[in-house]
Design brief:
The protein is α+β, with helices and mostly antiparallel strands. About 55% of the residues lie in helices and about 10% in strands. Strands 1-2-4-3 form a four-stranded antiparallel beta sheet. β1 and β2 form a beta hairpin. α2 packs across α3 and α5 runs antiparallel to α6. The chain starts with 11 loop residues before the first helix and ends in a 17-residue tail after the last helix.
């Protein structure tokens, strides 16, 4: 029996396109979250600042100037424009914690959509890792096969008899 598909408030692709890998963690920028939640970035950050004890370093962190410069050069265009403060980024756990800070029906629906996007991304990465492992295993088997074929095709060394007269005493 399959579960009925639920209609998401925000398309999965829209959320997934806003997930970045920074410091080895999958994160979403504060301004992207604010847009998804339909609030101002300032309001989102104020709510977080009032509840900083809920957001340890593995839930949320502020980017450095160097990270911003690197990201701007990778993304080419800047969509965060002129800000007084460095942007915050939130991990999956931080987004989950936002549900306790931001209230309202839309906040709950957006949070569910974001969690689904993180889970789907994790599933895709796990699938790709398994596929890479299998390809690597097959590559090793193919390499062994080619080595075996090469050894079969290599000319067999023939022991040559010396030219000339050989004395029977030798």
């Amino acid at each position: 029996m399959t579960k009925p598909k639920t209609q998401s408030l925000i398309p999965l692709k829209r959320v997934a396109s806003r997930i970045y890998l920074i410091r080895g963690m999958k994160v979403i920028f504060d301004f992207d979250l604010a847009e998804l939640y339909a609030v101002e970035t300032k309001a989102l950050n104020q709510a977080v600042s009032r509840n900083l004890d809920r957001f340890p370093g593995d839930f949320m962190f502020t980017l450095t100037n160097q990270e911003i410069t690197t990201l701007r050069s990778q993304i080419v265009t800047s969509n965060w424009g002129g800000r007084r403060y460095l942007p915050r980024v939130f991990t999956q756990e931080g987004v989950a914690m936002l549900s306790g800070v931001l209230r309202g029906k839309r906040a709950v629906e957006v949070n569910v959509s974001i969690m689904r996007a993180f889970v789907r991304l994790r599933e895709l990465l796990a699938t790709n890792a398994e596929l890479a492992r299998k390809v690597g295993q097959h590559d090793r088997q193919i390499a062994v096969l080619f080595e075996h074929v090469r050894s079969m095709l290599a000319p067999v060394p023939v022991k040559k008899n010396p030219i000339g007269f050989i004395h029977p005493k030798d």
